Amino acid sequence: MKKIVLIIGLGLLVQLSFAGGGWPSPKGKGYFKWSQYVIRSGSYYAPNGEIIDIATASVYITSLYGEYGLTDKLTVIGYVPFFSRATLNEQVDANGNQIAPGDAVNSFGDTDISFKYGLITNKPVVMSASVTFGLPFGNDAGGQTGVLQTGDGEFNTMISLEASRGINQGKGYVNTLLAFNNRSNNFSDEWRWGVEVGHSLTSRLSGALKVYSVNTFNNGSDVETPSNGIFSNNIEYLAITPELNYRIKESFGLSTAVGFAASGRRVLASPSFSIGLYLTI
User: Fold this and answer.
1) Dihedrals φ, ψ of 107, to 5°?
2) Which domain of life does the UniProt lineage start with (predicted)?
3) Domain spanning 5-92+100-276 has what CATH number?
């Protein structure tokens, strides 16, 4: 049976794509979230999809996410990783002699700004269209070695369609996503799809299961990028992410998530975890 592993799976993009689904935020209403993502890995999904050993690498991302209704149909969305850290462990031999020194980089991360417009609203099935601008504020060649990354160094524009429906008298929902991501700087374009199902478990606790797939067109450079992060070119993965949200107060709560990957290429392959605090207005 094929091994299933935990993976960061670019969980930030999963969050950005699915928050809100096909429903735009009502005018003057919003959702805001502080999150911490962590991955520490000694293994990597190689370009052929096999898992290989690498020097232990870590990525830490502290971010703010927000969406706000400019009108009842138009929502502005932002994802800002205001602190990103990538590290590479020191390597030593069996006798304790250093083979390669450790390395680290701290910086601002790649930022996303989106605009979502409600195409079909106030119907059992709603639909929205979004455009996302990926801003390369991160470091794509950091540390003393120049191989650590807190971003991919390319500007991208992603167009997406989302359709959603409430289920079980509003206690649950189903979201679907289809997107095309145009990438600059000789990076390959991507197409993406996703499905999310969520439901209230108690009066305060809700859960969601997200399936998200990123697929490359392989129409850019085939030059390999560093294998110690999550920002490579020609990335592919299928991520399965369960999430739990606990409402502490009416407009304030706690969110946790972990992502499983059935397959991947050019991304770290190890346990990743996220925790966040959210606020609705």
Assistant:
1) -165, 175
2) Bacteria
3) 2.40.160.40
